[in-house]
Amino acid sequence: MSSSNICLNNSSLKFSYNNLNPNRLFNTDTQKVFFRTTRTITCHSVDVKSPNVGISAVNELGKKSKEVIEDEGRYLVGTYARAPVVLEKGEGCKVYDVEGKEYLDLCAGIAVNALGHGDSDWLKAVVDQAAILTHVSNVFHSVPQVELAKRLVTSSFADRVFFSNSGTEANEAAIKFSRKYQKHTSTNGKVPATEFIAFSNCFHGRTLGALALTSKVQYRTPFEPVMPGVTFLEYGNAEAAVELIRQGKIAAVFVEPIQGEGGIYSATKEFLQSLRSACDDAGALLVFDEVQCGLGRTGFLWAHEAYGVFPDIMTLAKPLAGGLPIGAVLVTERVASAINYGDHGSTFAGNPLVCSAALAVLEKISKPAFLSAVAEKGLYFKELLKQKLGGNHHVKEIRGFGLIIGIDLDMPASPVVDACRNSGLLVLTAGKGNIVRIVPPLIITEQEIEQAVDILSQTLSVLDKNNPK
């Protein structure tokens, strides 16, 4: 990265020239971004953090990867600090970049590709449906949508389903349904409950309603004011939650049975049961966000089944259509009875193509043998991690449930993530950036688990290089 001094408005400013985006200059003194226009340079006074990917990392890439990354810097809105990898194809639990390098994928598109890449049954469902009917909107009925809703209802606590296109949209719908339910059930002039409870380390999405329920302040602050009326409590603090619910102002409690983005924290049965009882007593709704932890990832079809506690509303998304965009809100008849025509909707949601893909995914994942295998592989993965990583002084805890696993470190995890990637293993971070998050395709083999653990154990040494004692 080269630097230069530019005089602007009688001030001398020092810039770093970013060859990822020749129209973007970075002021190394003020930490502000300037954009080159045809005649001048204009300042956008926003605080920014240095990107995770350095220019040296990009310069080490092959020509094709470098070209794609440079074009991304020119043409896409800069909302993602992407890893310097340009993926081109995948098969099973492996993905390949444009230069042909192979990676073992423990990201699975952020817990999306439950059946891995290129599953033959999923592919057949998509191709066959695409040849018949792709999209009709929700003005008309379609068979795959009804069949998928039927399958979701028969395999869950729910009586009805609403389809959306993503997890955040599913949570937006759940917010609206909760508010509408409270208005629908308030009688004798009673003011309906409109407030919400969410918990520390939670993540429910990035649209304004879902964002209001997401605990990370840095996600919400740039877009305030967000939806008011949300109280954040400590995850697992049943006493505080029960006390607030009993006040009668809470429309719904949103909780992840297992927090993914927040750091792979699992609820206890006692905590969820306390929420269930308090909501029943006060007339509040209990919403389980299973966007990341649901649909087989824990070894149960639904994560809450492990606790024997059932919600009024459950939101789903990530793995449901095996990589195609879908979200779903599962509700009881009691909640559904409050929703009328026109209360909510979506043009694309639940179209025949995506629902056919989801039916193929659900058919495989819901089989008892498949779920049992996920549970066994999850136990094996955790045990192997504890054997090979547990003695490292940087590893505070290895936790998780099924194939959603977190390695809690005493320092930022990004050096490990980068070293793993260089060694052909893709993993994620979570929490405050100190968690290595492992959410592989549910079809991962024991041999691939062993390969992953070997790479992880070898790469932990980078933490000592980054933080010498």
TrEMBL record:
It catalyses: N(2)-acetyl-L-ornithine + 2-oxoglutarate = N-acetyl-L-glutamate 5-semialdehyde + L-glutamate. Pathway: Amino-acid biosynthesis; L-arginine biosynthesis; N(2)-acetyl-L-ornithine from L-glutamate: step 4/4. Pfam families: Aminotran_3. GO terms for molecular function: identical protein binding; N2-acetyl-L-ornithine:2-oxoglutarate 5-aminotransferase activity; pyridoxal phosphate binding. PANTHER family: ACETYLORNITHINE TRANSAMINASE, AMINOTRANSFERASE CLASS III. It is an enzyme of class 2 (transferase). It comes from Lupinus angustifolius (Narrow-leaved blue lupine). GO terms for biological process: L-arginine biosynthetic process. One of its GO terms (cellular component) is mitochondrion. Its EC number is 2.6.1.11. It is found in: Mitochondrion. This is acetylornithine transaminase. CDD domains: OAT_like (cd00610). Keywords: Amino-acid biosynthesis, Aminotransferase, Arginine biosynthesis, Mitochondrion, Pyridoxal phosphate, Transferase, Transit peptide. Belongs to the class-III pyridoxal-phosphate-dependent aminotransferase family. It comes from the Eukaryota. Its cofactor is pyridoxal 5'-phosphate.
